[in-house]
Design goal:
This protein is an all-alpha fold and 455 residues long. It has a domain of 219 residues. Helix content is 71%, strand content 1%. It has 24 helices and 2 strands. A two-stranded antiparallel ribbon has the order 1-2. Helix 3 crosses helix 17, helix 12 packs parallel to helix 23 and helix 17 crosses helix 23. The termini are far apart. The N terminus is likely disordered. Keywords: Membrane, Transmembrane, Transmembrane helix.
Length: 455
């Protein structure tokens, strides 16, 4: 930082202690979320390692926790929907988490039925199978570990200035390319090095607090929430092309960036409202005032953000995120996630729906196009399924192409999709389906071209 920058910061209402607070806590947040370290046979961010650590200790017990949470949630939501008792209506927090539309009420009831059936292994195999209800129960169990770590560490990224700092510095690059604020680069990096659901939760938090408009949040959630590098390697291993991981991941990055430049500029995303959360209004301002350098203004805005954040705020917001997501999200994963997987595993629905993509792949010269075409669509239900379909195939090039496709489609209902639908961001199931199909149609020829160039 130059002497002139220091002088400009000192002339503002920022104290040295605010700058130090921003620097220390943001550095900790950056180290936790953005810098991968060697962990086992791969690399992961410290927050991801922390999630694995917590999961190792509590995972076997979380099925009991989820059983209690989901069943009580369904019972209390039903009671509140029909009878509106005072003990819920007069409690601000209970009233917030237990108010549900008819669709969400049904979702919570179905979720409770599913978890009871899977837990006690009662009912038809289509529901309690390890590939349907069992998979969704395991996913909700993992969600507990993710939330226990993410809920209380995320403020280091969101509330102590690093997003303001990066937003001011790179706005001139990110805004024209992807039509979103510069701070969204932090969401992308969190996703790349950590987990896509963590990045979506981060974006939701930024929308709720007035830092993204509805359109910006929708764009970031559906274009920047790429799966993490470690998971990409896992998929490459599952489908048997780990020896090609370098061109595999290079293609993911190139195609992902091209899609992120195109998709926000076409419907439905370009039609999403630019309004900010009505409860907060617009808080963000990344435009540098006249007379200030970009760096000085970045430090100033970041320090002012850090100044307003207290430890009690972090704990309160962490508690709110943890319980809101557990009560709101887990039943949806269990209900609609299980239904989606039943359609994949026990019906020909996706085989029929994917038939046009067989023609599309065939026209582009992809071998085994019709045989493997279901892998183009089943990712909408869950990110793991395409890899399982591709694994038995002996056609390396096709596995390479469709494996990459499954990782740039991004919108997996059982993972990030339900978080988006359950959030206040103004984008619903129909829009997510359109974006998924757009990403699929545009990505396929790009991936085929990259494959021909690299393999």
């Amino acid at each position: 930082m130059s002497d002139s920058d220091i002088g400009k910061i000192e002339k503002s209402n920022v104290r040295a202690t605010d700058v130090v607070k921003f620097a220390i806590f943001s550095l900790i947040g950056a180290l936790l979320f953005l810098f991968p370290i060697k962990y086992g046979n791969s690399f992961n961010i410290p927050v991801g390692i922390g999630i694995d650590f917590v999961k190792g200790y509590i995972h076997e017990y979380t099925k009991y926790i989820m059983l209690i949470f989901v069943v009580i949630n369904a019972i209390l939501t039903t009671i509140n929907y029909f009878f509106k008792p005072n003990f819920i209506q007069e409690n601000k927090w209970l009233n917030k988490v237990l108010v549900a539309t008819p669709l969400y009420l049904v979702s919570r009831i179905i979720g409770a039925i599913v978890i009871v059936m899977v837990f006690f292994q009662l009912g038809p195999e289509a529901v309690i199978s390890g590939s349907t209800g069992g998979t969704m129960l395991d996913l909700t169990m993992s969600l507990v570990s993710v939330l226990l770590v993410i809920s209380y560490t995320m403020p280091l990224i969101t509330d102590f200035g690093i997003m303001e700092f990066s937003g001011v510095l790179i706005r001139s690059l990110v805004k024209p390319l992807f039509t979103v604020p510069g701070r969204s680069a932090v969401d992308l990096m969190t996703s790349w090095f950590g987990a896509s659901n963590a990045a979506v939760l981060l974006t939701e938090r930024q929308y709720n607090t007035g830092y993204y408009s509805g359109r910006e949040a929708a764009v970031i959630m559906t274009n920047f929430s790429l799966v993490s590098i470690p998971f990409c390697y896992i998929v490459a291993t599952i489908i048997g092309i780990e020896n090609l991981f370098t061109p595999f991941y290079l293609t993911i990055v190139v195609v992902g960036f091209i899609l992120a430049a195109i998709i926000p500029r076409i419907p439905p995303l370009n039609k999403v409202t630019e309004d900010y959360n009505k409860e907060t209004g617009k808080v963000i301002n990344e435009t540098v005032p006249q007379g200030k350098s970009k760096f000085a203004y970045a430090v100033e805005t970041a320090s002012l953000r850090a100044k307003d954040t207290t430890f009690s705020d972090v704990i309160k917001q962490g508690n709110d995120m943890f319980f809101s997501v557990i009560f709101g999200l887990a039943p949806i994963i269990l209900s609609w996630g299980t239904i989606s997987l039943i359609l994949v595993e026990f019906t020909p629905v996706f085989n029929i729906l994917a038939y046009p993509f067989g023609f599309y792949l065939d026209i582009l010269g992809v071998e085994g196009a019709f045989e493997l075409s279901p892998a183009t669509l089943v990712g909408f239900a869950d990110m793991f399924i395409p890899g399982l379909i591709l694994a038995p195939s002996k056609i390396i090039e096709t596995k390479f192409i469709l494996g990459i496709l499954s990782l740039v489609q991004i919108i997996y209902l059982t993972e990030v999709g339900v978080i988006i639908i359950n959030s206040k961001v103004p984008i619903g199931f129909k829009e997510l389906l359109f974006v998924f199909l757009e990403r699929t149609v545009i990505a396929i020829p790009l991936i085929v071209l990259m494959t021909k160039l690299l393999l």
